[in-house]
C-alpha cells in the first residue's frame, strides 16, 4: 500500500468534514440509546467524507459510526464527530477521526479538532505530526508524576454492571498517580497521549471509529498501545491501553487487578 498517498487522501477527506462542522448548525438530535445521540452535523460530515473516500479510493471500504459499512478487509473507519455530547454543549473537545485498517492493524490516521485548530496525522513508518510538527509521547518514568486519562463511563441499561470495572480502576489509580482525567472523546484523548500531554490512557471500550486513527497516531509517536490484557492491540480488542514505557509495568499491574 502507498500509505503516503492514502494519508493525503485522508487529510483531504477530513478537511472536507471540517468545513461541514464550520458551516452547519447542530440541528435536530437523533436518539441512539439512553443519553446517546447524533446531531445533524454527525450525519452531514459522515456523508461528505464517505462520498469523497468512495470517489478517491473505491477499492477501500468505509465504515462510519452513523451509517455503518465495511466491517472487514482494508477499510477506512470514520467517526464524524467524536465527542458529540461535548459538541452539542459547546465544549470544544470533539474531533473528526478517520483511520485506516489494513491486515487487522491500524496503519494510518487523521484526527482533526476544528474548534481547537489542531490536526494530528500519522501513518506506519512515516511518523506522527500535529499541525505539521513532529510529536512524541511521554517519557514519564514515575507513576506519581503521571497524568492518566480514562475512558468515559458507559450509559444505557447495563451501565451499572459495565461501569463496575471502571469505577474500581478509578479507586485503584487515584492514590497512585498525579491526577486522572476524563474528557469525553477517545480521539482527542489518544492524540493528547501521542503528544505527551497524557502519560497514559486506559479505555474499557474499542469501537474502531473511535480508536483506530488515534492508535496509529500513538504508535508512530512512540507510545505503546495494547489491549487491556497486555496483548497487542487490534480492531477487535476489548479496550485500549496506551502508555509511556517508563510507567507501563506498574500501571499494567494495577489494571490487571480488576480483569
From TrEMBL:
<feature type="binding site">
    <location>
        <position position="210"/>
    </location>
    <ligand>
        <name>Mg(2+)</name>
    </ligand>
</feature>
<dbReference type="GO" id="GO:0007165">
    <property type="term" value="P:signal transduction"/>
</dbReference>
<protein>
    <submittedName>
        <fullName>Myo-inositol-1(Or 4)-monophosphatase</fullName>
    </submittedName>
</protein>
<dbReference type="Pfam" id="PF00459">
    <property type="entry name" value="Inositol_P"/>
</dbReference>
<keyword id="KW-0378">Hydrolase</keyword>
<dbReference type="InterPro" id="IPR000760">
    <property type="entry name" value="Inositol_monophosphatase-like"/>
</dbReference>
<keyword id="KW-0479">Metal-binding</keyword>
<dbReference type="InterPro" id="IPR020583">
    <property type="entry name" value="Inositol_monoP_metal-BS"/>
</dbReference>
<feature type="binding site">
    <location>
        <position position="82"/>
    </location>
    <ligand>
        <name>Mg(2+)</name>
    </ligand>
</feature>
<keyword id="KW-0460">Magnesium</keyword>
<dbReference type="GO" id="GO:0006020">
    <property type="term" value="P:inositol metabolic process"/>
</dbReference>
<dbReference type="GO" id="GO:0046872">
    <property type="term" value="F:metal ion binding"/>
</dbReference>
<feature type="binding site">
    <location>
        <position position="65"/>
    </location>
    <ligand>
        <name>Mg(2+)</name>
    </ligand>
</feature>
<dbReference type="GO" id="GO:0008934">
    <property type="term" value="F:inositol monophosphate 1-phosphatase activity"/>
</dbReference>
<feature type="binding site">
    <location>
        <position position="79"/>
    </location>
    <ligand>
        <name>Mg(2+)</name>
    </ligand>
</feature>
Amino acid at each position: 500500500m502507498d500509505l503516503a498517498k492514502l494519508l493525503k487522501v485522508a487529510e483531504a477527506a477530513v478537511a472536507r468534514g471540517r468545513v461541514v462542522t464550520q458551516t452547519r448548525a447542530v440541528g435536530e438530535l437523533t436518539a441512539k440509546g439512553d443519553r446517546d445521540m447524533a446531531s445533524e452535523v454527525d450525519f452531514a460530515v459522515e456523508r461528505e467524507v464517505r462520498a469523497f473516500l468512495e470517489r478517491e479510493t473505491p477499492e477501500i471500504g468505509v465504515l462510519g459510526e452513523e451509517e455503518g459499512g465495511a466491517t472487514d478487509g482494508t477499510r477506512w473507519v470514520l467517526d464524524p464527530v467524536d465527542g458529540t455530547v461535548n459538541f452539542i454543549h459547546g465544549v470544544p473537545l470533539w474531533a473528526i477521526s478517520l483511520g485506516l485498517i489494513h491486515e487487522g492493524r491500524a496503519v494510518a490516521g487523521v484526527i482533526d479538532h476544528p474548534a481547537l485548530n489542531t490536526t494530528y496525522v500519522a501513518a506506519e513508518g512515516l511518523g506522527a505530526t500535529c499541525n505539521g510538527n513532529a510529536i512524541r509521547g511521554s517519557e514519564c518514568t514515575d507513576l506519581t508524576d503521571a497524568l492518566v486519562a480514562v475512558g468515559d463511563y458507559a450509559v444505557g441499561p447495563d451501565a451499572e454492571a459495565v461501569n463496575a470495572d471502571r469505577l474500581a480502576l478509578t479507586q485503584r489509580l487515584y492514590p497512585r498517580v498525579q491526577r486522572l482525567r476524563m474528557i469525553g472523546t477517545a480521539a482527542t484523548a489518544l492524540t493528547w497521549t501521542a503528544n505527551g500531554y497524557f502519560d497514559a490512557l486506559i479505555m474499557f471500550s474499542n469501537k474502531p471509529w473511535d480508536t483506530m486513527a488515534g492508535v496509529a497516531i500513538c504508535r508512530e509517536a512512540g507510545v505503546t498501545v495494547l489491549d487491556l490484557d497486555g496483548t497487542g492491540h487490534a480492531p477487535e480488542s476489548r479496550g485500549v491501553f496506551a502508555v509511556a514505557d517508563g510507567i507501563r509495568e506498574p500501571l499494567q499491574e494495577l489494571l490487571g487487578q480488576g480483569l
